[in-house]
């Protein structure tokens, strides 16, 4: 019988590294996603206007310092964002290092196209209402050090591909309906 995975939290010590990111279509990709969300969510993101998230101080957007400021992080928590990630153009977000939409009301599946965001070090979609299986493509995010998908309604097995996340230091899948076990190869 499959082991019911109720709690799994790993915290090891590793030092994250930094890399540069660039963003040309990022603003329009984010606006497209914003307008796929409900009205209340759009008003929570009312500062998201224009074409330059860094100069225009978009809520939740973090940028690198230096002459050419580029978006490195998106952290939007606790604002009841309601909608899906279906319209998220992950290819335009491929240089992001931090993506955190925890503590919202997002639903639907975690798209397999998340595999495009291969520079992510920190991915948190915790405490939403995501369902379906964790996509195999999550294993393409080999820079990840932190992965929090806890407190959703995810089902199925933890994909074997997560074994490729060799830089992962912190993993939380608590409070889902997952079966199976964590691949042995996870860790640093
Ligand atoms: C954005 O924030 C910076 C620093 O807080 C400030 O100097 C700048 O005027 C702001 N820009 C806009 C368009 O609000
Ligand atoms: C950019 O500089 C500000 C102010 O000095 C600092 O708070 C912020 O952490 C820096 N961001 C990055 C990505 O280094
Ligand atoms: C989110 O929704 C809850 C429940 O309706 C409400 O209590 C809370 O104030 C909302 N938060 C925001 C930031 O709108
Ligand atoms: C990357 O994004 C493109 C366009 O959004 C999509 O067609 C493709 O399947 C994605 N690739 C991966 C590996 O997810
Ligand atoms: C979460 O999704 C499930 C179906 O997947 C639904 O039954 C439930 O009402 C949703 N909960 C919230 C808080 O939206
Ligand atoms: C993970 O690594 C295995 C080999 O260990 C490989 O077969 C598989 O395609 C990889 N998966 C991903 C998502 O990169
Ligand atoms: C994993 O971490 C090591 C040490 O910090 C770093 O050199 C390497 O580039 C990282 N690998 C990826 C795929 O980010």
From TrEMBL:
Residues 1-21 form the signal peptide. It is found in: Membrane. The keyword ATP-binding does not apply. Keywords: Leucine-rich repeat, Membrane, Repeat, Signal. Residues 28-64 form the Leucine-rich repeat-containing N-terminal plant-type domain. Pfam families: LRR_1, LRRNT_2. The keyword tRNA-binding does not apply. One of its GO terms (cellular component) is membrane. This is Leucine-rich repeat-containing N-terminal plant-type domain-containing protein. The lineage of its organism: Eukaryota, Viridiplantae, Streptophyta, Embryophyta, Tracheophyta.
């Amino acid at each position: 019988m499959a082991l019911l995975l109720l709690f799994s939290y790993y915290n090891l010590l590793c030092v994250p590294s930094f890399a540069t990111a660039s963003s040309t279509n990022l603003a329009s990709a984010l606006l497209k996603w914003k307008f796929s969300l409900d009205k209340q969510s759009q008003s929570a993101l009312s500062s998201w206007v224009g074409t330059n998230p860094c100069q225009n101080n978009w809520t939740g957007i973090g940028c690198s310092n230096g002459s050419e400021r580029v978006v490195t992080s998106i952290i939007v928590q606790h604002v009841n964002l309601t909608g899906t990630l279906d319209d998220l153009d992950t290819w335009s977000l491929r240089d992001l290092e931090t993506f955190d939409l925890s503590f919202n009301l997002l639903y639907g599946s975690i798209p397999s196209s998340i595999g495009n965001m291969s520079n992510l070090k920190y991915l948190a979609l915790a405490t939403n209402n995501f369902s379906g299986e964790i996509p195999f493509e999550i294993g393409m995010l080999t820079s990840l050090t932190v992965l929090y998908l806890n407190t959703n309604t995810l089902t199925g097995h933890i994909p074997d591909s997560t074994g490729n996340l060799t830089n992962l230091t912190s993993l939380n899948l608590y409070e889902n309906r997952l079966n199976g076990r964590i691949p042995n190869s996870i860790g640093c």
